[in-house]
Fold:
Amino acid sequence: MSLASSATIASGGGRPPAGGSDGKPYVLPFAVLIVLLALAPYSGLGPGLTYPLRTLAVAAVVVAFSRGVIDWRPKRAVWSVLVGLAVFGIWIAPDLLFPGYRQHWLFRNALTAAAPAGLPPAVRTSLWYVAFRVGGAVLLVPVVEELFWRAWLMRRLISADFGTVPLGAYGAQAFWITAALFASEHGAYWDVGLAAGIAYGWWMIRTHSLADCILAHAVTNACLAACVLVYGRWEYWL
Structure:
């Protein structure tokens, strides 16, 4: 059975966005981000330089290729903020409730590796780095990831001609594959990454709105950034 045959196109006016079936605006920013992340250890530059350069490069790709498919007007802004806050609560809850939670073999193994230890002290005190890191996490990463995961992949798994599939269309296989792959992107935090992927996917289905998913994701990342800077939880910056 194809994914298309198992899909239920949710009602509610989620029209396909501008851009037709050209995947470049949705995929290219994420692909550039992943390639630059993979190359960073071999660059000979420290995180104080690689992160700002990566942020600027990916932002340039978004502006050049993706701005035409992004809707910046959320339909349910207040509820999107609440969804983002709920995902933040889910993200930090295991570590608050169960000390040593991330030391379990489910999160420390050959596939996920260990939870990241954080950043060198010199980088933590760099206003340049921190400004780019907060800006990237809150303003850029939600755009790049929602374009790829919820606006492209979730529709592409329903139909190869994804441009004919409305935003927020539901196909069970597409929904759960996207959530699982989104979880795998988060390494040792795959469990809360899965919960986040389910929440953002559900919110896309409810709102049919890329802007609402970007807003929810941005709120989660903003709260995590505040947690890093106020409480020193540097491990949340993967």
User: Anything to note?
Assistant: Confidence is low (pLDDT under 50) at residues 1-13. DSSP finds eight helices and two strands in the chain.
